[in-house]
UniProtKB/TrEMBL annotation:
It comes from Haloarcula limicola. Pfam families: TRM5-TYW2_MTfase, Trm5_N, TYW2_N_2. PANTHER family: TRNA (GUANINE(37)-N1)-METHYLTRANSFERASE, TRNA METHYLTRANSFERASE. Keywords: Cytoplasm, Methyltransferase, S-adenosyl-L-methionine, Transferase, tRNA processing. InterPro entries: MeTrfase_TRM5/TYW2, SAM-dependent_MTases_sf, TRM5-TYW2-like_MTfase, TRM5/TYW2-like_N, Trm5a/b_N. This is Class I SAM-dependent methyltransferase family protein. Residues 79-326 form the SAM-dependent methyltransferase TRM5/TYW2-type domain. Signal peptide: none annotated.
Amino acid sequence: MGVPSVRVAREDGEATRTRLAEADLVDDGYDITVEDGSLYIPVTDPAAVPDVFDVVEFDAPVREGQTMPADLLGFDPSYERIGDIVIVDEDDPERAREIADAIVASDLPVEGVLNRASKIKGETRVRDWEVLAGDTTEVVHREYGCTFALDLAEVYFSPRLATERHRVVERVAAGERAFDMFAGVGPFVIPFAKAGATCVGTDINETAIEYLHENAERNGVTDRVTAVCGDVREVATDYEGWADRVVMNLPHSADEFVETAVSLAGDDCTLHYYDIQSDDDLYGPGERAIRTAAEPEYEVTVETRRAVRSYAPGEQNVVLDVRLRR
C-alpha cells in the first residue's frame, strides 16, 4: 500500500527531512528510502506539507520492528496527531474504541487518544472531546521550530493550518509590528516574534491568552510579545495606525471586523484576511469588504488570492493577502 511521502533529490534529503521534522510531519512508522536517485520521506499529513515539495504515494517499508495500528486492525484507520495525542473522528463508539486500543497497542509514540464529540461551537470555537486513552486533553505541539502548549478542550487550534501559517511567517521581517486579532495560543504570534517582529495578540478566550503568555516564554520571545484578553474592537483603540501586518484568522465572521483591522493599519500594512466562501465567489466578498472599509484613505492591492483547504462541499477556506498603502 502506498504511503504519502515527500520525494526529493538525494542531495537535498537532509535539509528536507529537517524541515519536515520541525513541522512534526515525518511519519516515524516507515523507513526513509532511496530509490533511483530520489529520497522518499514518509509524512503523517500530506495536506500540511509545503507546496514546494513533491508529495507522492510510495511503497515505503514499515520500520523494522514497528507495529502500526493497521497491522492490528486489518484496515488503515484515519487519524491525525498533535504532539503526543492522536485524534480520531468516529461516530461509532465501538469502532472508535477499537481504533484507540490499536493505536495504544502499536508502536506509535502517543500518550493519549481523543475522539471528536462535537462540532466547533461557541464564541471561543472549541469542541467537546471523548477521551479514549490517556487522561488529558492538554498537549505540547511542535511546528516549524516552535512549541505550543495548549488544551484542545479549552482553546481552538488546527494543526492542518501549519503550512499556511509558515507561508505567512516567511514574509515577516525583523523590526515589523504585527497584530493578530484572534491570536489563540500564538501559532502566528510566536513565529512572528521569533522572526524579529514586535507582536500584539488579542483573544476573548482567557485560557488561550494564558497559553499565549506561556508559549512566548517557552520560545524565548516574551520581550517581543504583548498578549491581551478582550474584544479586539475595544483593544484596537490603543493601537490605531500601529501595525505593519495584521492577521484576521476568523473564518465566517472576519467581515465583521474589517473596519477594526483597517484602524490598526499603519501607512503601509499587509492584511491577511481568512474567510470561508462558496466556490461560486471565493474571494469577492472579502475583497469588497476590505475595499469598502479602506478606500479611499488607502490604496488597496490584493497581492494573493489563495484557497487554503477544502472546508465543505462547495466551500473553501481562503486567504487574501492585501496591501494597504495610505
